[in-house]
Amino acid sequence: MNNALTFLVATLIDLYLIIVLLRLWMQLTQADFYNPVSQFVYKATQPVVGPLRSFMPMVGKLDTASLIFALALGMLKVAALVWLNGLAVGPLVIVIQGILTAVSSLLSMLFWVLIIRAILSWFSQGYNPIEAMLHQITEPLLAPVRKVIPPIGGLDLSVLVVIIALQFLRILIGV
C-alpha cells in the first residue's frame, strides 16, 4: 500500500511540476500565448501563479512566481516522499533535494519535448499547433548548436547533441 501511495503522490506532483516548468519555459522562450497548448498550461497554473505574481513581479523574461512555485513543488515532492517513507532528514536536505528535483524535472521535460518534436517532424503534414509550440520552445536550445554543427546532408544533428547534453546534466546532478 505504501509503494502505491508513494507512486501516486510522486506522479501527481511530477505532472503538475512539469506543467509549471513548461509555463516558465514558454515564457522564457516567448512562445505564442494563444496556442491551445499554451492556453492549457496557463489555465492549469494560473490559480497558484496568478496570486503569487501579485507580489513576485517578472524579472525581464523570467517569471519569478512560476520559478518559486516550481521550486516549492520540488520541495513538496521530497518532503511528501520523506514523510510517506518514514525517513528522518533535515529541512536543508529537503530544500536542496527539492531544488535538484525541480532542475531534473526541467531537464527531463526538455528531453521529452525534443523527442516529441523530432518524432512529429517525421510525420508533419502542414501546420499543427502542438508542433508549432514545440518548435518555439526548443529552437532557443537548437539554434546555437546548429551554428556549430550545421545540418549534414539534410540531417539535423542539433537535436541529438542537445539531448545528450541534457542527459549528461541530469546524470551530473544525480536526481
From TrEMBL:
This protein's record includes keyword Transmembrane: yes
GO annotations of cellular component type: membrane
Domain of life: Bacteria
Keyword Ribosomal protein: no
InterPro entries: CCB3/YggT
Transmembrane segments: 6-25, 62-84, 90-115, 154-173
Keywords annotated in UniProt: Membrane, Transmembrane, Transmembrane helix
Family: Belongs to the YggT family.
Protein name: YggT family protein
Native source organism of the sequence: Idiomarina ramblicola
